[in-house]
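Structure tokens please, single chain.
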Amino acid sequence: MDEREVKILGIESSCDDTCAAVLSGNALLSNIVAGQQVHYEYGGVVPELASRAHQQNIVPVVDTALKKAGIEKEEIDAIALTRGPGLMGSLLVGVSFAKSLSLGLNKPLIEVNHMQAHILAHFIQTPGKQYAPPAFPFLCLTVSGGHTQIVLVKDYFDMEVLGQTLDDAAGEAFDKAAKIMNLPYPGGPLVDKFATQGNPEAFSFPVPNIPALDFSFSGLKTSFLYLVRDGKASSPDFVEEHKNDLCASFQHRVVSVLIDKIAKASLQTGVKEIAIAGGVAANSGLRKALEQEAAKYSWKTHIPLMQYCTDNAAMIAITGYYKFLRKEFAEYDLIPKARFGFAKQ
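Here you go.
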């Protein structure tokens, strides 16, 4: 079989987005995402509601992905699924559906680590887009609502975590800052939006003193909480009056921490191919800062398309494709893993 004709169906259900995608080789044919509005009124993802919504969405999402790809379900060569990390109830829906479809079609099953998939999203070839993927080895700053990591990527499945958050993830810090300001969920994108209109030097926040290449954002979150509390004590309208500057200043500090650590990792390893991945890779402040630092450090930077930053199934399918080439198929007794680290496989 021609590797370019291998068709992989990817299924992603680790949190609150039900996703399905089809790739032919590494070329994208379809990428469908169904969000869940039910969580907005609660100000965050409610796990039980998320799993119920996945049950409602997964059949139409997979059906739409196949139709948009222009293929019948019998034409796929394998089914790739997110095994973890993520919410256990949400993962169970995707894993159970993928197992059933695999058995029904007699097609191989491929398990995927969600965090590895974010990194390998850089290798998806998108129609109409010219993009050269990172060359091995490269450093990837993987930043989302649940994870913040610096990963040395030596090959598709030879990855080493050089540093990670010791408490809150960067995306969680953005969401918590938004909640402190009473911004609606999801708050992270709103912080980014208002930050573009504010002064990043208006308020100062401490630089976390964390050794090596690890991160910590809990102190920044607490500092922001106290600033807003004290400001509202002086003026009930403090947040509204300073919303843009608050967002800009907080985002500036978080981004500076991320950039400083990836710069340190580059100097330590000598690697100058630098990529970002994960939901926070969509943050305009981070994307701009990475581009600015590229000239300073002679980096070759890789910034993913917006559709591959947040959770999606195309990244699951591309990871499944490379595992398919290695004939790394899963057994039907696999179970989801809410916590799922990765190392060389």
